[in-house]
Design a protein that fits this description.
With 320 residues, the chain is of the alpha/beta class. The chain folds into two domains: 221 residues, CofD-like domains (Rossmann fold), CATH 3.40.50; 86 residues, no CATH class. It has twelve helices and twelve strands. The longest helix has 15 residues.
Length: 320
């Protein structure tokens, strides 16, 4: 009788492009992956489908499914294709429409729709929304004003003090809570701090499950700041913002880039109001800092998914 070797259980929390980049590297490792994804998006195609069909926003889920899927490049390109023309269809991606259609076929059950589409795409892992229903993200700015809407907050032109959600009738998906409690490693980020990472932590039940878990826990800091969201933030500022929202000691490690960024690339990003996230070398409230060259550049700066994966596998080995 054959016995299957144990695969460490890794849970990744976030949304946006950063999470997808990380998952493309992790899916090549001998691990069991669960991705917990934000449902706060309210802009673009996701926002339209969320409003018109009363369903959770599919965009971040789509990106994660594509990142974890075992598909041909042409199918991936098709899922990410966004219509340019067409009355009512312009701006929608095919992947978003597939999730919307699958949700209707599943009698409005978005979680079941994700599961079924995961089977169709041969997804290597499990993809779960942080909550069963959409959440509305609000931000209190430093001048005391309140801005509502995930897509609107970075465009306000004001510095964010804190973000919060309407918690009435919102709770963490049971499967997400179970995955966190049973995880061997929990990874937070990378992704937009206030609009992709923190919205997941604000869902009731998520932070409690992370704290109860015996997993090794790490926060992966962004490579660059984001205009309108984390202007001039250092690594320590990112960590402090998380602690201010959910308390200290949520994770043990902070993974941050210390690789060189050329002056030419810096200038390109400076034109958009972004700059490298630097690490001052402080202990960041007692967290262990793992600094490494985590950069790749191909039209845009991204985390090196292969190097990140090596670091994470190393943390899993240390836990064992």
């Amino acid at each position: 009788m054959k016995t299957t070797s144990y695969k460490p259980r890794v849970v990744v929390i976030g949304g946006g492009t950063g999470l997808s980049v990380l998952l493309r590297g992790l899916k090549k490792q001998p691990i069991d992956i669960t991705a917990i994804v934000t449902v706060a998006d309210d802009g673009g195609s996701s926002g339209r489908l969320r409003c018109e069909l009363q369903m959770p926003p599919p965009g971040d889920i789509r990106n994660v499914l594509v990142a974890l899927a075992d598909t041909e490049p042409l199918l991936e390109k098709l899922l990410q294709h966004r219509f340019v023309n067409g009355n009512g269809i312009a701006g929608h991606s095919i992947g978003n429409l597939l999730l919307a259609g699958m949700t209707e076929i599943s009698d409005g059950d978005f979680v079941l729709a994700i599961e079924q589409l995961s089977h169709v795409l041969a997804v290597r892992g499990r993809v779960l929304p942080a909550a069963r229903h959409s959440i509305v993200l609000h931000a209190e700015m430093e001048d005391g004003t309140i801005v509502s809407g995930e897509s609107v907050i970075p465009k306000s032109g004001k510095r964010i003090k804190r973000v919060f959600i309407d918690k009435e009738n919102v709770k963490a998906l049971d499967d997400a809570v179970e995955a966190l409690r049973e995880a061997d490693a929990i990874l937070l980020g990378p992704g937009s701090l206030y609009t992709s990472v923190l919205p997941n932590l604000l869902v009731p039940g998520i932070v409690d499950a992370i704290r109860e878990s015996r997993a090794v826990k790490a926060y992966i800091c962004n490579v660059m700041t984001q205009p309108g969201e984390t202007d001039n933030y250092t690594m320590e500022d990112h960590v402090r913002a998380i602690s201010d929202h959910v308390g200290d000691s949520l994770f043990q490690y902070v993974i941050v880039n210390n690789g060189h960024i050329s002056d030419e690339v810096k200038a390109l990003y400076a034109e958009k109001g972004a700059q490298p996230v630097v690490c001052k070398g402080e202990q960041a409230a007692g967290y262990h800092i793992i600094a490494d060259n985590l950069l790749v550049y191909d039209k845009a700066l991204r985390h090196d998914a292969a190097r990140l994966s090596q670091i994470i596998i190393g943390l899993l080995g240390a836990k064992v």
